[in-house]
Structures are given as structure tokens and as C-alpha cells.
Amino acid sequence: xxxxxAIVKAIxxxxxxxxxxxxxxxxxxxxxxxxxxxxxxxxxVKLLLxxxxxxxxxxxxxxxxxxxxxxxxxxxxxxxLANVESISLFVEANLHPLVAQFIIPxxxxxxxxxxIRMRESSSITAVVKADGQLLSASQExxxxxxxxKDG
Length: 151
Prior knowledge:
Layout: H1 4-29, H2 33-37, H3 41-49, E1 54-55, E2 59-62, E3 66-67, E4 73-79, E5 84-91, E6 98-103, E7 111-116, E8 122-130, E9 133-143
Parallel strand pairs: 1-9, 3-9
Antiparallel strand pairs: 2-4, 4-7, 5-6, 5-8, 8-9
Transmembrane segments: 12-31
Pfam family, one: SoxY
Domain Ig-like SoxY: 49-148
């Protein structure tokens, strides 16, 4: 049998769980808010990774040369580098160029595939952080129908 105390306790506990659930996405999604809010690619890279990447043939970006819809552009990044810590994606022409960062656990294949939004035709740049180095590769993608108004 439920008494008033048990009901109040259940409501309080349920409310606390809902509150924690509401906070978790913001913690997981944008832990470096200033980098995701940056309006230039160079500044976003510096805020997120602390340096300037060097172009490397050890990083590859695969995306369509022409994307019919900028709302869902498939991108794959692979690297042959060892000790990869993270892979970050930037779209230079977006209002906020940093579109994704993937933390790569140790002893994991350094490869990611995702879909990104592109405002307009632009260069897609992947920056790989490995052994304290920042290495990058870029590819131009022409967008025939923009996928985001503000991003």
C-alpha cells in the first residue's frame, strides 16, 4: 500500500532523474562551447586543439564532390597514424565551422563516418590529433541545395 510519504518520495526522485537526463545531452554535445561557437575555422581549430594543423597524406577525407542536399553530406575520415586521440571535422563556409569532434579511445581503429550539414559549397577539413601533432586533409564539396541556414 502506498502512503503519502512514498508518493512524495517517488515524485522527488523522478524529478531528479528527469533533471539529470535534461543536463546530460548538453554535457555530451558541446563540452567546448567556445570552439563550436567560433565563426572562423582557424579560430575554432585553435580553441579546440590549441594549434595549427599541417596537411598530411596520412589523413584522408572522403565525401561526395557534389552533394545534392547540404542537409546530409556523408563524410568518412581515415588515418594510418598511430596513437590517435581525436578526429575533428570543419566546414569552412558554415557560420560555425566546427561540425564534429570524435574522441578516439586507445587501441581503436582511427576511422569515423558521419553525415554533416553544409551551408553551401565549401572545403571539408579533417584534423587528426595524434602523438601531440595536428595533421589534416581537406576536400572540396559542391552543394547544390544548402542544408542549414545558420550553421
